Amino acid sequence: MPIRVTLDRMLLERRMSLTELCDRVGITMANLSILKTGKAKAVRFSTLEALCKELGCQPGDLLSFDEDEDDDAAD
Asked: Taking the CA atoms of the chain, what radius of gyration do you get in angstroms?
């Protein structure tokens, strides 16, 4: 999928653990883990908003688009 979630990079930059983010945002560890590993097929705007508020970032800091990634899947 050409959309990549860069939550792991943001956590590293903020020196915050996934567990700490779960506690602060109120999202289950399982759901954040799915998002962090890129296995999520969708994300609610309310979840994205909560993450951005807690991490002090913009949605574009958590998501990126890699056009080449989609081409690799077609091969």
From this structure: 13
CB atoms under 10 Å from CB of 6, counted, come to 17
Alpha carbon separation from 62 to 3, 16, 27, 55 (Å, rounded) = 10, 15, 16, 10
pLDDT of residue 50: 96
| Single pTM value for the model | 0.83
- Picking from 10, 3, 4, 17, the residue whose alpha carbon sits closest to that of residue 52 is 10
Alpha-carbon distance 39 to 42, whole Å?
9
Q: Residues 29, 52, 47, CA angle at the centre, nearest 5°?
A: 50
CATH architecture of 3-74: Orthogonal Bundle (1.10)
